[in-house]
Fold:
Amino acid sequence: MSKQIAVRLPDDLVDFVDEIVDSGSERSRAAVVTQALERERRRALAERDARILARTGPDRELAGLAEYAAGLPRDLA
Structure:
C-alpha cells in the first residue's frame, strides 16, 4: 500500500532529483525520494542501536560477530 503526498522542495534539490532520474539511476522522482527516506530510516535506527549499545555495553554472546563479519569478503552474493 502507498499514499500520495505533496511536498515543497527547494529548486536545487528538485534539480538534483531530476538529474538522478535523467541519468537512469532511478525510474522516477518518487523512487529517489523513497530511497532517500529508506536510507534515513536505516541511519536513524542504527543511531538508536548505537545509543543502546553505548548505554548497555556489548552483548557477550555476540562479541565476536562484528569482528568475524568484518573479515568476510564484501562481494558475498
User: Anything to note?
Assistant: The mean pLDDT is 91.
